[in-house]
Amino acid sequence: MTRTPKIVLLTLAVSAALVGCGKNETPAKDATASTPAAADAATTYKLDESKLPAYNAFQASDLDSNLDACTAFGDYVNGKWLAANEIPGDRTSWGAFTILDERSVAVQHQLAEQVAQVKNPAGIEKIVGDLWATGMDEAKVNAQGIEPLKADLAAIDGLQDKAAIANYLRTSAAKGENVLFGFGAEADFKNSAVNMAYASQGGLGLPDKTFYTDASKADKLKAYQAHVAKVLELSGVAAADAAKQAEEVVKFETRLAKASKSSVELSRDVSLYYHPVSLAEADALTPNFSWTEFFKSQNVAAPEKFSLAIPAFHQEVSKALGDTDPSVWRAYLRFHTVDGASPYLADAFVQENYEFYGKTLNGQKEQKPRWKRVLGTIESDAGEAFGQLYVKVAFSPEAKAKMEELVKNLAASLKERIQGLSWMSEETKAKAIAKWETFTPKIGYPDKWRDWSGLQTNRDSYLGNVRAATAFNYQYNLAKIGKPVDKTEWGMTPQTVNAYYNPLQNEIVFPAAILQPPFFDAKADDALNYGGIGAVIGHEMTHGYDDQGSRFGPTGNFENWWTEADSKNFAGLTGKLVKQFDQYKVDGQAVNGHLTLGENIADLGGLATAYDALQKASAGKEDAKIDGFTRDQRFFFNWATVWRTKYTPENAKVRLATDPHAPAQFRAVGAPSNLPTFTAAFQCKPGTPMSRTGDSQVVIW
């Protein structure tokens, strides 16, 4: 299991995704249909449908007739399936999203093998083919051992003082290998039409600061220290010295953790990312780390302002440069250099990486096969390039047209819901509608593909190709600083089964891969499609009005467009939703209703909006029962099917601490239990678990 980078990228931090899976659990799309866009590849690719995993669409036979929809709706719809299906050994969760990911990965597998065989490849075919071929050449990777890192490790061994360490941090960052903090371009919160530079916290090998400070996670911290020692030993450090150095590395990271913000803090206060300062002001805050010199070293023109997010973290780094023995810095940098490269090195490094990040931390029972890991690398390093090939065989123009219709219908229903709010003043409603009017939907794939010319790859070294792509992507991002935002760009690849909302551009984005069952099926009835992709569309639209999205205005600028009274009313309603989710528990551990608030707001508003849109689309049509169930019942059945998921116990604990999405079993029931339409559809008695009434019922958007 490749470790997810701990550097926080602002785009992902402020953009609300539907499921928020890590790159090892990220889904994708069907392999039929025609070519929607021209890629820079002339080769014709063919797929063998018989080798692709089946869909996991809703079926009436899934329902457990021994249960009551009003008391145990999640188990009623998904219990039988969950009991009959185990999590595959190379996964940490299993359900609707990950099953589609298996299908996407299977499509990509067939494509990659064909791309790698192209004679005299150029452009994206060469990039994808080189990454695939070198990644799959296990014998060569093993023969090279740690040799590809020798120059880096020698440079680290030579660091003797704070000036040398600071210089190393700058030079490694220029290659996109900055372990200490995230740095890159994103739209200016106050002028979202222009990109500015942002620096954020980083530097930790564990998922969140709480893993270093909470007694309940002490076992993971202890295991992490053992992992650090093992990696150092694999890199050539004697066992006894590696153990001592590992202890110092963990102490150092604990220091950084204490100066960091938690996942909860970052997810529920997006303003933490925006702290504009001049270079002189930044230099004064961090006297041992010159930001003026950092910008020069990254070949970025000195800006009037940049965002030094989480300034206390950067101040602590500066202090550490001044008071921490260089030997500790050397051990820290050596470990992270090797650890970050481990997935692309010899088998011993790969295995150790899996043993901790996959098995110990997340409960993954077995290593992913090499081909899946290599595809994950291509997704990370050249995902949009691969996406150009993917959509040629895996996305239907008919699906895009249907999605455009659904988006239009959902938007109309959301507008009516906003206009009908009883708790919001007309003044704020007018501004909410103004924001609604500027929503930009993106469906399937980018209208303009990214230019990959300049990325040089070869068949010599897997790590060499990965590092070339890392540096290329980093410089591509830095080149945006100070320039107008390119609103045609996407933050997800077409082969990703997910969707997101970006408040800085007020856009909702639906990659091609999510347009398949159980989300979307051109052959299914409206009830299933509105309960699936319709609710996803509504979910992403509602993110524009969740507790963080609502802090951005129609143009994407960070601004307050609420009256004081409306803000107070909104806080009261969202507080009730926090309380609802706080009461859900996984193996005795409570869900964090505050951490998951944004997604829960989006689920509630999205599902309600999708239901309204279904009623409008079905007006005048007979409600002919299918398998004995009404249209409304099937709508809610498919909503629950989308959240049909199980997790390893270890992965569930990590998610409870870090994931702004509630566990899937509670997303299946949380939103519908607040809707009177659910109560009516299943004739539930007031007060049953799925029929919240009075003060326990939450109605927001």
From TrEMBL:
Keywords: Hydrolase, Metal-binding, Metalloprotease, Protease, Signal, Zinc
Pfam families: Peptidase_M13 (PF01431), Peptidase_M13_N (PF05649)
One term of GO molecular function: hydrolase activity
PROSITE patterns, A to Z: NEPRILYSIN, PROKAR_LIPOPROTEIN
Domain (Peptidase M13 N-terminal): residue spans on this chain: 70-446
EC numbers, comma separated: 3.4.24.-
Signal peptide: 1-19
UniProt cross-references to InterPro entries, sorted A to Z: MetalloPept_cat_dom_sf (IPR024079), Peptidase_M13 (IPR000718), Peptidase_M13_C (IPR018497), Peptidase_M13_dom_2 (IPR042089), Peptidase_M13_N (IPR008753)
Residue span(s) of domain Peptidase M13 C-terminal: 498-694
Annotated family: Belongs to the peptidase M13 family.
Name of this protein: M13-type metalloendopeptidase
